[in-house]
Design brief:
single chain; 166 residues; Rossmann fold; six-stranded parallel beta sheet; 6 helices; 6 strands
């Protein structure tokens, strides 16, 4: 199973839209996938609700796709908080990760993906080398929140195909 993590707790974000597009594309390919939206779950406290989230989304996943917006030149603190509250050995050790950075600027959160890669490697994760930066994320959707930019879609399709084989 693949768990996609929409890495922000901001409601209505472009990060959530990108994550939903990944879910749609993977589902279309017949891949068992779940979407963990950090704006829909409280990951701030290690409690029974958080343990249920771990058991549904994190522990059973073999692979993760992180959609990470750029926050102040890095990745959102809510993602770090989720990881810090989790049972690292059960949730993350020796599992595979794919990273997509999103920003309205020109770099697609390259720096944030680099920072996050270091954290994942520390947690004994295997990071796929095709880390996709999506720039100008606010301009790639139609009115139904579907990605319509051909170059972006091509990059995502290639990234997903590589990750399925990974």
């Amino acid at each position: 199973m693949i768990t996609i993590i929409s890495g922000t707790n901001r409601p209505g974000s472009n990060t959530q839209k990108v994550a939903s597009n990944y879910l749609r594309l993977l589902t279309k390919k017949g891949i068992e996938t779940k979407l963990l939206s950090l704006n829909e779950h409280d990951v701030c406290y290690k409690n029974d609700t958080f343990h249920a989230l771990e058991n549904e989304y994190l522990i059973p996943a073999e692979k993760f796709i992180f959609i990470l917006p750029e926050y102040n030149g890095s990745f959102p603190g809510i993602v770090k908080l989720m990881i810090d509250n989790s049972d690292v050995s059960k949730c993350w050790h020796h599992k595979k990760a794919l990273l997509t950075g999103v920003s309205s600027g020109r770099a697609g959160n390259l720096r944030g993906m680099e920072h996050f890669t270091g954290s994942l490697l520390h947690m004994k994760m295997i990071v796929h080398p095709n880390r996709l930066p999506i720039s100008s994320v606010d301009k790639i959707f139609n009115e139904h929140a579907e990605i319509t930019d051909a170059i972006t879609l091509e990059g995502i399709e290639k990234q997903i195909e590589d990750f399925i084989k990974f």
